[in-house]
Design brief:
The complex is a heterotrimer of chains A (299), B (334) and C (252). Chain A has a single domain, classed as ABC transporter involved in vitamin B12 uptake, BtuC, CATH 1.10.3470. Chain A has twelve helices and two strands. Chain A has helices spanning 3-34, 41-64, 68-98, 103-125, 134-138, 151-172, 175-185, 187-192, 197-219, 229-244, 249-269, 274-288; strands at residues 141-144, 147-150. In chain A, strand 1 (141-144) and strand 2 (147-150) form a beta hairpin. In chain A, helix 3 runs antiparallel to helix 4. The relative contact order of chain A is 0.19. With 334 residues, chain B is mainly α. Chain B contains 15 helices and four strands. The two termini of chain B are 18 Å apart. Chain B has one domain: Orthogonal Bundle (ABC transporter involved in vitamin B12 uptake, BtuC). Chain B has helices at 2-6, 12-32, 38-57, 68-85, 90-112, 117-137, 139-142, 166-193, 195-212, 217-243, 253-266, 273-291, 295-309, 313-318, 321-330, and strands at 148-149, 154-155, 159-160, 245-246. Classes of the chains: A mainly alpha (299), B mainly alpha (334), C alpha/beta (252). The A-B interface holds A 37, 39, 94, 97, 103-105, 107-109, 111-120, 122-123, 231, 235, 238-239, 242, 272, 274-276, 278-279, 282-283, 286-287, 290 and B 57, 61, 63, 65, 111-112, 114-119, 121-123, 125-127, 129-130, 133-134, 137-138, 253-254, 257, 260, 264, 294, 296-297, 299-304, 307-308, 311.
Chain lengths: 299, 334, 252
């Protein structure tokens, strides 16, 4: 493998890890406060992508032309807002109801939610793939030794790194984070100490939705969004979750990186066996370290 | 034991009554609403899958979102044995499907039944999506998304259904599928009332306690996983000739969702639950699909509504004291 | 050797710096009933965990019925006749009382793998389950699920499931915990009657001194991982240092 090819794979792994991190960290945040693994979480990622595609092609391009700032910032903003609204309206009531009702109940109702979302997307945006890659091409390509690499992907990696730092600060240095970690460690104790659990849960759900929505909007320009994408990302994110371990910041990062690494390489060398590779990695991690590589420690 | 057999949802008499009803209803519906009678055939075939799914979920406590994998194994065995071996003897094809499902489920179950909850659910979902990907991508073998057309089978080793008219075939196939259903449902009834079945229930309720009684719970979970897969594969195999085509859709994740829905709709804590759930499910689906293409939206809403309103499903409603009282007032025999 | 069901010598188990069990030795005669008392954190449950095989000791030996079981797995110890119940009720909540008992008996008889004969049709299983129910006083609630019976009955069911294994040695971790004051003597009466009927030796961890005084003829007092007293309750429990430890700070 040439050096430039290796660099390309490394950057692609990072790019993909960024997207997965935005989903997995949200899953872990919700798991932290509610002890629910939300099967419908990746649909918020898809919603972000759909929103970005829709706002870019119907509004931004017409009003702002090829203004780079508008092409990049507005879809992100819109996606975050739409995702939060949808999440508070549809996801939160279900999660609140399912809280404390056991694994099977939670998996089944969030699976129901997954079906609802997937079908709603098709009702609103149709079954044909939607794309809006203006931002991707507007940013152009940079030299990577003897190859070209899209600047857009570098921007996504940088931006996600920035988000990760903010998230880390929020959780480990802010007042919200203090309360959040207390609840994640022991919800009953926290509520006994007078913490308003309801508020923390709402905040956590908003935070997780924003991350997923941004992820979808960031993903859209390099690909397209169509039915089935939710499930694709659901699976990859959950393998990341299994690998990283449930409910921690470090676990989200590690899981996202490991799963993206294996996915990138299996897509390059054995594309037909992508899922087999992911399954093998997840099963192996579970066998050796059932709590995941970074898990078991909590937030 | 004593209490369980008295419940309507767990009685063999309910199965017998329902089977007779299905047999009698077929010509009646065909006469009243031509074309609707075939729903019953789909219903009994899917009920076999739901029974298998629920052995794992309702009786062993393992919730799978990937049983479409075994449905696909069943259906594609019919397609591939027809396409490459020119085999049309349905029982032989079903036998091959069972062997294939046995091998495949033993191999995958060996890994996945070690886990519970979300881990089990996700690992089996990944397996199912992998197989679905194979059917789509290896189109030179599987026909890709175009699938494989299924010719009319030879049943019982001698009866070639190829010359039959549309309605005649449907009717014969209905009673053929009903016979399979009765056989599989009866076997399931034996299984869940056997020491083996009760051992699964122990594992469902308190796996650690079962271990203190000296039970190797891994082996029992694996056995339940395999039996469950065989049921779903038989269902998939019977589905193929009626559907007349086998496509990757039959192995898609939404099919796993159907099995989850059928079980909870009927009531996963009852033997009759998945059976009743499957029969009502196919009716819902047919009615809904006549109105809208967005059936999965309705299904998603119904899944959530069922879990919120009656987590023990329709059988749970029937089992309520108030309903039983009504029944006794009507002096119904059951 | 003859007649000694259990010989524990020099048993040690540390968790990090905590000496949970610190050089415990004692022997038990066949058919003997032994109560273990001590304040919270004295190492009582750890000792039970060590003897039943849930955890392995750092050092020391456990001889059971003339053989060394120190390194045997949990399942093998069930096989040689050591069984236990837990402090928290752990029964099969989805099954009726009779089903709970029947499947426990069936597990001992190793008929679990039969898939096609109904559990009900095993006459020997049913008879034994009914006998267990009778001895435990559960005959009235055979058709009820554990959620529908009293806490005392649940405890009895839990212990009856353990006894269905026909163990030679039964260890009960606080059989009366969570049981109402009204019920606790009835629970103990039933448990001991059943134990007697099965001829099993027993180790009973107990907090309730009323229960200990009423039912024991030999008591082990544990404190900080060590045995600080062993003998008849009337002698042991009246000693000044033992009283101080058992009553804790309230007394001091």
């Amino acid at each position: 493998m040439s050096l430039s090819l290796a660099a390309l794979y490394a950057l692609d792994t990072l790019f993909y890890a960024s997207l997965i991190f935005l989903i997995v960290s949200g899953l872990n945040i919700i798991y932290g406060v509610l002890r629910i693994v939300n099967l419908a979480h990746a649909t918020l990622f898809a919603l972000g992508a759909y929103t970005a595609a829709w706002i870019t092609s119907t509004y931004i391009v017409k009003v702002f032309g090829d203004s780079l700032i508008a092409l990049i910032a507005l879809p992100l903003l819109t996606a975050a807002i739409v995702t939060v609204i949808a999440s508070l309206a549809l996801v939160m009531p279900i999660l609140a109801y399912a809280h404390g009702k056991g694994d099977a109940f939670q998996l089944i109702v969030t699976f129901g939610l997954l079906l609802v979302f997937e079908e709603l997307f098709q009702i609103i945006w149709g079954r044909a793939p939607l794309a809006a890659n203006q931002a991707y091409f507007a940013l152009g390509f940079m030299d990577l030794i003897d190859r070209k690499y899209p600047v857009y992907k570098i921007m996504v990696i940088t931006f996600t790194g920035f988000l990760a730092v903010i998230l880390w600060y929020m959780i480990y240095r802010s007042r919200f984070g203090l309360v959040f970690r207390a609840v994640a460690m022991d919800p009953e104790m926290s509520s006994a100490l007078g913490v308003n659990i309801g508020r923390v849960v709402v905040m956590a759900i908003i935070l997780a939705s924003v991350l997923a929505g941004l992820g979808g909007a960031l993903y859209l320009p390099v690909a397209s969004i169509a039915p089935g994408v939710s499930l694709e990302f659901l699976i990859i994110a959950f393998v990341g979750l299994v690998i990283g371990g449930l409910g921690s910041f470090a676990g989200s990062l590690i899981g996202a990186f490991v799963v993206s690494f294996f996915r990138t390489f299996s897509i390059i060398f054995i594309p037909e066996l992508e899922l087999v590779v992911l399954f093998a990695v997840a099963a192996l991690v579970l066998l050796v370290k059932p709590e995941g590589i970074g898990g078991g420690k909590g937030w | 034991m004593v209490a369980a057999s008295r419940e309507l949802g767990n009685s063999l008499r309910a199965l017998i009554a329902l089977s007779i009803l299905i047999a009698v209803l077929y010509p009646i519906i065909g006469w009243l609403r031509p074309g609707f009678e075939v729903i019953l055939t789909y219903g009994v075939i899917l009920a076999i899958a739901a029974l298998g799914f629920n052995l794992l979920f309702g009786y062993t406590g393992l919730l799978s979102f990937g049983h479409a994998a075994f449905f696909g194994v069943g259906a594609y065995t019919i397609g591939l044995t027809l396409k490459y071996l020119n085999l049309r003897a349905l029982e032989a094809q079903i036998f091959i499907a069972v062997v294939a499902a046995l091998l495949f489920s033993a191999l995958t179950g060996f890994i996945v039944v070690r886990y519970r909850g979300i881990f089990f659910a996700i690992l089996i979902l990944v397996i199912a999506q992998t197989l679905w990907g194979f059917y789509v991508k290896f189109y030179h073998i599987t026909g890709g998304t175009d699938g494989i057309r299924i010719l009319r089978p030879v049943i019982l080793g001698f009866y070639d259904t190829r010359g039959l008219g549309y309605d005649d075939f449907n009717m014969i196939y209905h009673y053929y599928a009903l016979a399979w259903f009765i056989l599989m449902a009866y076997l399931m009834w034996r299984i869940i009332n056997s020491p083996f079945g009760y051992t699964l229930k122990m594992i469902r309720d308190a796996e650690d306690r079962a271990q203190t009684l000296g039970i190797d719970t891994f082996k029992f979970k694996l056995a339940a996983f395999i039996i469950s897969a065989l049921y779903v594969a038989v269902s998939g195999a019977l589905y193929a000739p009626l559907n007349r085509i086998v496509t990757p859709d039959l192995a898609y994740w939404t099919v796993s969702g159907k099995m989850v829905f059928m079980s909870i709709l009927g009531g996963f804590t009852y033997y009759m639950g998945p059976i009743v759930g499957a029969l009502i499910y196919v009716y819902f689906e047919t009615v809904a699909q006549a109105i809208t293409v967005h059936w999965f939206l309705i299904m998603g809403v119904l899944i959530i509504a069922t879990m919120v309103l009656t987590p023990t499903g329709l059988m749970g409603l029937v089992d309520r004291p108030s309903f039983k009282k009504t029944l006794s007032l009507l002096k119904l025999p059951i | 050797m003859l007649g000694k069901i259990l010989q524990v010598s020099g048993l040690r188990k540390y968790f990090g710096g905590v000496k949970a069990v610190d050089g415990v030795s004692f022997t038990m005669d066949e058919g003997e009933r032994l109560f273990i008392v001590g304040p919270n954190g004295a190492g009582k449950t750890t000792l039970v965990n060590l003897i039943s095989g849930y955890i392995m000791p750092d050092s020391g030996t456990i001889m059971f019925d003339g053989r060394d079981v120190t390194r045997l797995s949990l399942a093998s110890r069930v096989g040689v006749g050591i069984a236990r119940s837990f402090q928290l009720v752990n029964v099969f909540w989805g099954l009726t009382v009779l089903e709970n008992l029947s499947i426990a008996v069936a597990s001992r008889l190793k008929v679990n793998t039969n898939m096609f004969k109904s559990l009900e049709s095993y006459k020997a299983v049913l008879e034994e389950a009914l006998e267990l129910a009778e001895l435990s006083g559960l005959t009235e609630v055979l058709d009820k699920r554990p959620s529908e019976i009293s806490q005392g009955d649940r405890k009895l069911l839990d212990i009856a499931i353990t006894l269905a294994l026909k163990p030679k040695l039964v260890m009960l971790d606080e059989p009366t915990s969570g049981v109402s004051t009204r019920e606790k003597f009835e629970v103990m009466d039933r448990v001991l009657k059943t134990l007697h009927r099965f001829g099993a030796s027993s180790i009973i961890v107990e907090h309730d001194m009323e229960v200990v005084k009423k039912y024991s003829n030999r008591v082990l007092v544990m404190h900080e991982g060590k045995i600080i007293g062993d003998g008849a309750p009337s002698d042991i429990l009246s000693k000044e240092d033992v009283r101080r430890i058992l009553l804790g700070e309230a007394y001091a």
